[in-house]
Design goal:
80 residues, Nuclear Transport Factor 2, Chain: A, four-stranded antiparallel beta sheet, 1 helix
Length: 80
């Protein structure tokens, strides 16, 4: 059985994003990111899994995307 080490949830409108640090049955850690509709909303649930050894590359890539976004599109802001 897989073990949840810790979890964080970010709500965004009709979607919820769950960031779960987990261990598989062999004890290998990984990050699971789940995009799911919030309660009462229809939609599809999506999951991605990032193995521990890939986390530094994933972090570097997402940071570069955020930097390019701010340079080329503008500040990352939420709509009110």
């Amino acid at each position: 059985m897989e073990n949840v080490i810790f979890t964080e949830t970010q709500f965004a409108g009709t979607r919820a994003y769950h960031f779960d640090a987990r261990e598989d049955v062999k004890g290998d850690p990984y990050l699971q990111i789940v995009e799911a509709p919030t309660q009462g909303n229809n939609g599809t649930r999506h999951r991605i899994f990032i193995h521990a050894q890939d986390l530094p590359k994933f972090k570097d890539t997402i940071c570069r995307v955020f930097e390019k976004w701010q340079e080329q599109i503008g500040p990352i802001v939420t709509k009110s």
